[in-house]
Design brief:
By secondary structure, this protein is mainly α. The chain contains 4 helices and 2 strands, in the order E-H-H-H-H-E. It is 59% helix and 7% strand. The longest helix is centred in the middle third of the chain and has 24 residues. The relative contact order is 0.20.
Length: 147
């Protein structure tokens, strides 16, 4: 089975997406989103809605970080550990910030959920990179169909 070709957009765009994801996480971590508390459980009723949001947010951060550093000459394991540590470190920082706000509370459980989300995403990224071949695309016209 051949490898799927995936475009590697310019580095500034990749890091711009990372910053946008991190900013969105920070915004919704500092300000209570509208309708907060209206939904109690997430999909399948297994975990609370907040647990799903934390896990997915930090999984998204880890994936965007992994894509941003994809062109670095690092081993897969280095990327895996680095992405995990950056995402979890950001989550710890956000929780420390929340501890200083009167309207928010910091929770160690949230840090654990963030770590699980980032860890699962980092491992999935490593598996994905085994099946994908990245190519540089400087312009939109250079993006090819992944056939």
């Amino acid at each position: 089975m051949g490898r799927i070709r995936v475009p590697l957009v310019p580095r500034t765009l990749r890091w711009g997406v990372v910053i946008a994801v991190a900013a969105m996480i920070l915004y919704y971590s500092v300000f209570t989103p509208p309708g907060s508390g209206a939904i109690r459980t997430g999909p399948f009723g297994v975990f609370a809605y907040g647990v799903w949001l934390h896990g997915l947010a930090y999984a998204g951060l880890a994936i965007t970080l992994a894509y941003a550093v994809q062109d670095r000459p690092w081993r897969d394991r280095t990327v895996l550990v680095g992405v995990f540590l950056m995402a979890v470190g950001y989550g710890v920082g956000v929780e420390l910030l929340q501890s200083t706000l009167a309207t928010r509370t910091a929770a160690f459980d949230d840090i654990l959920v963030n770590a699980v989300g980032a860890g699962v995403a980092a491992v999935c990224w490593r598996v994905l990179t085994r099946r994908v071949r990245f190519y540089r695309a400087q312009r939109l016209a250079e993006i090819e169909m992944p056939v």
